[in-house]
Amino acid sequence: MNRLLCVASVCALVGCGGYASPDQHDVAPAKSDESVGAPAITDGDSLAIEEWPVPWETTRPRDPFVGPDGRIWFVGQTGDYVAALDPSSGIFQRFPLDSGAGPHNVIVAADGTVWYAGNKAAHIGRLDPSTGEIVKTAMPAGAADPHTLIFDPVGDIWFSVQHSNMIGRLAIGTGDVDIVRVPTAGARPYGIVVDPDGRPWVAEFGSNKLATVDPSGLTLREFELPRSGARPRRLALTSDRAVWYVDYAEGFLGRFDPASESFLEWPIPGGRNARPYAMASDDRDRLWFVETGAIPNRLIGFDPQAEHFIASAEVPSGGHVVRHMVFHPPTRALWFGTDTNTIARAIVP
């Protein structure tokens, strides 16, 4: 298996960054590199994808999250709604939001409370599914676009703020919001995960860096990826505390070891224009990601112990773009939304 090894370059944190460039799906095509070939998928593990068409057409259903009752919650980014799917019956339930909310992401607490990112309306919303009541927490000045939400171990919410170039934390008990500015101008903090110590890790999609914030002192550090052209977009964690990323711009899967501050990278099967986007790790520490550079999009698995790619499946509807993905351990299922207006499930082998 071809791979690259590099020790991170660490940027110390001072100052604040500027406003990022407009959001877009495409980046400049990667330059060809004959020295690093795209690897084959070596195992033939069975991987089937099932899709549920969302009844509200062309609303970009995305970022599903499995609630405690087994329902699959998601948002309609262009339809201004939060919704739930009962996969056993196929029944959908819709909760309308204010026009222009532009919901980008949703997560669900253990008590069933639903939280969504009002990306175009500068708030994080709390939805009570039993009543439909929504309580909004306004973002501080300058934090215009909360992007991706994730719980920490105590139930507070960390989030990225892409175009405002910030990382934030919402304290559930008080409603207080802390904001940390990213020093790299145009960093576009994007995908986010939280490790077992409560430390968030963020992919800087506008640069070739990862960022992390000390939850106690709110100090931020950045780690530079081995390649200047890399653009990490989504992240995942494994039980060895490694932070994994997909490089959307140049077609790599990467592993960052926070203890040694070193990187390992593998070229992915679809090559340098594969545009890997959504990703997640499973209960066996395998990595899963979706190549969105071709239609149909393709779901790929990777075994870090064997260092090879283990399974693949095309999205039946084509997918068009798969933006975010979660793994549900009790059912061993990956869930994701597609720009072909479906919610999809893949049971991992």
Provide an overview of this structure.
Helices cover 0% and strands 46% of the residues. It has 349 residues and is an all-beta fold. It has one domain (4-12, 39-347): YVTN repeat-like/Quinoprotein amine dehydrogenase (Methylamine Dehydrogenase, Chain H, 7 Propeller). The strands form 7 sheets. A 5-stranded antiparallel beta sheet has the order 1-23-22-21-20, with no helix packed on it. Mean pLDDT is 91; it is low at 8-26 and 28-36.
Which terms would index this structure?
single chain, 349 residues, mainly beta, Methylamine Dehydrogenase, Chain H, five-stranded antiparallel sheet, 46% strand, globular
- How many distinct helices? 0
* N-to-C CA distance: 22 Å
Just name the CATH architecture. 7 Propeller
Beta-strand portion reads over 45%
* Sheet with the most strands: spatial strand order: 1-23-22-21-20
Fourth CATH level, the homologous superfamily: YVTN repeat-like/Quinoprotein amine dehydrogenase
Largest sheet: 5 strands, antiparallel
Topology, number of strands: 30
CATH class value: Mainly Beta
- List SSEs in N-to-C order: EEEEEEEEEEEEEEEEEEEEEEEEEEEEEE
| pLDDT < 50 stretches | 8-26, 28-36
| Coarse structural class | mainly beta
The average pLDDT is 91
Q: Judging from the principal axes of the Cα atoms, what is the shape?
A: globular
- Which topology does CATH recognise? Methylamine Dehydrogenase, Chain H
**Number of discrete domains:** 1
Percent helix: under 10%
Q: What's the alpha carbon Rg, rounded to whole Å?
A: 19 Å
